[in-house]
Design brief:
This protein is of the alpha+beta class. The protein has 18 helices and 20 strands.
Length: 557
């Protein structure tokens, strides 16, 4: 095989959002960059392209317009209660977390706004918690949905990449798979080696060939690992699954393409990098099978508001405060201990019209396409949003019926009776919940939470349905949705200092080596701790990529 050789000031391994941001910062400082990725150039931007584009912002103009009172102090209180840092290895993750929350409260919005990024006017309220003031969850709405979804977040950095390429500052090495970090005799990282893969016309997200057609080596005074996590590698996810989350599900669906496999984390560890928080992960509990899949086991997440009744696989209601949209990881742990790997939403047409949204840029063509008319039609007008309706018609996880006996029969048909739902058990839960709707006050904390959510005007107008009985004929038909565990994010990763330099097992920075994005646990090796407040994954890529890019630019002089 022929060998290609490259030389640059900096080598960036992974062309997702963190890698693009770092490249933009490096080239803005006049540095020459070699940007490598094993996928075709059509996949530039990585997982960020498929995202909904939600960003965690603190005390934003959008919040203030709705009367939301937020602050750095409140946001940090929420982050600490959510992350629950409790390990000696959390030194750098906690420092990264603090730096990130300050970034989200002070500079993040202005920095992105100056590059043309805009947001919908109504911040969403993700991960509401349901515990005490110092426990998990967002005290206020902070999920700012980008106009243009994930592609809207990527746009300024793809534009800056194109400008830098036109100036001769960037070489993009698509179909270049890094297999080794090159270390000098003094221990510094001086470059990479790997294989050139066969050219591929695979569309974004689809599997591409792994046939090797050549070799390459690249020298650089700084190397950045920004290659993502392990969410597409189900074997690696199960191997890292912690006991506190119960047994690893036998059946998982994938929220990311198969190439998100964690290879570079392992390669960097073999070169001396420290990996921490392997057992910390973030997987969604509201996954449904994509009726039109792009990658193997492709799943989509339902973004729920609080009204659906959540039942386990046997028809029993999930315990307080495991309501839709309140505590993802707490729900995941409960499911893991249940002996089954699926749960159910039971709801009505009125609820699905107002409260169901699907995660992902491709499932939100109105926002992705920046069509105000389509947004008003889909989000404010009556009727079920078109992407949701398509899943109802063609998805394998939806059951629709005019009465509860027929609905339970269809639910059992979906699971082939594994386990068999008993009508009496489901009816008991539904009828008991409906009785709590007779008064504006109740002992049922989910119903109380629904009333509380509607006190936030943006939720009242466009997100949370008017409370009603599930068995109200005027609200029907009844709908049930089987929910599966959807793999998504690696919360642990390569340990880094506040400049993004990768640390060795002894805590010293490895000269010449940086990490950013999910490969670095979004900063420090795990700035989220055990849980996320949401809107923080894209933000973590932005912040860690910017930090590492600026530090690398300074280091290579």
């Amino acid at each position: 095989m022929t060998e290609r050789t490259y030389e640059a000031d900096a080598v960036v391994v992974g062309a997702g959002l963190a890698g693009l941001v770092a490249t933009a910062e490096l080239t803005s400082a006049g540095r020459r960059v070699l940007l490598l990725d094993q996928e075709p150039e059509a996949s530039l931007g990585g997982q960020a392209f498929w995202s909904l584009g939600g960003l965690f912002l603190v005390d934003s103009p959008e919040q203030r317009r709705w009367g939301v009172k937020d602050s750095l102090e409140l946001a940090w209180q929420d982050w600490e209660g959510t992350a629950a840092f409790d390990r000696a290895e959390d030194h750098w993750p906690e420092r990264w977390a603090r730096a990130y929350v300050e970034f989200a409260a002070v500079e993040k919005r202005a920095w992105l706004h100056a590059q043309g990024v805009r947001w919908l006017p109504n911040p969403g309220w993700a991960e509401r918690g349901g515990y005490g003031a110092i426990g998990h969850g967002n005290s206020v709405p902070r999920f700012h949905l980008t106009w243009g979804t994930g592609p809207g977040v990527l746009a300024p950095f793809l534009r800056r990449l194109a400008e830098a390429r036109s100036r001769g500052l960037v070489t993009v090495g698509a179909r270049h798979r890094v297999d080794e970090l090159v270390r000098a005799s003094d221990g510094s990282v001086t470059g990479v080696r790997g294989a050139v893969l066969q050219g591929s016309r695979a569309a974004r997200g689809q599997a591409s060939s792994r046939t090797e057609v050549g070799e390459f080596s690249a020298q650089g005074r700084a190397v950045l690992v920004s290659s993502g996590g392990i969410g597409g590698n189900l074997e690696a996810v199960r191997a890292a699954w912690p006991e506190r989350l119960g047994s690893p599900p036998a059946r998982l669906i994938c929220g990311v393409p198969a190439h998100v496999d964690g290879r570079m984390i392992a390669i960097t560890e073999r070169a001396g990098g420290s990996v921490i928080g392997r057992d910390r992960m973030w997987h969604y509990v509201e996954g449904i099978h994509n009726w039109s899949p792009i990658w193997p086991d492709h799943g989509i997440r339902i973004l729920p508001a609080p009204s659906s009744l959540w039942l386990d696989a046997t028809g029993k209601r999930l315990p307080v405060p495991l309501f839709p949209g309140f505590d993802t990881l707490g729900t995941l742990a409960h499911i893991g201990r249940s002996g089954h790997d699926h749960t159910w939403f039971v709801l009505t047409r009125k609820i699905i019209e107002r409260e169901f949204a699907l995660s992902g840029s491709e499932q939100n063509p109105d926002i992705t396409g920046k069509s105000i008319r389509a947004v008003l039609r889909e989000r404010v007008g009556s009727g079920i949003p078109a992407p949701v309706e398509a899943f109802m018609r063609q998805g394998a996880d939806f059951a629709v019926a005019t009465d509860l006996p027929a609905l339970v029969g269809k639910m059992n048909a979906i699971t082939q009776g594994q386990p068999e739902l008993e009508l009496a058990q489901v009816e008991r839960e539904v009828v008991a919940r409906d009785r709590e709707l007779a008064n504006p006050y109740t002992k049922d904390l989910q119903v109380t939470a629904i009333h509380g959510a509607r006190r936030y005007l943006a939720d009242r107008l466009s997100r949370v349905a008017v409370p009603h009985r599930l068995l109200d004929p005027d609200a029907g038909p009844l709908i049930a949705v089987r929910l599966s565990i959807l793999t998504r994010k690696t919360l642990g990763g390569l340990e880094t200092d506040l400049a993004g330099r990768v640390l060795s097992g002894g805590g010293e920075a490895i000269p010449g080596l940086w990490a950013a994005g999910e490969a670095a646990g979004f900063g420090g090796g795990g700035m989220h701790g055990y849980r996320s407040l949401e809107g923080t994954f894209l933000g973590g890529c932005l912040f860690s990529g910017r930090t590492a890019g600026r530090a690398m630019a300074a280091a290579v002089g």
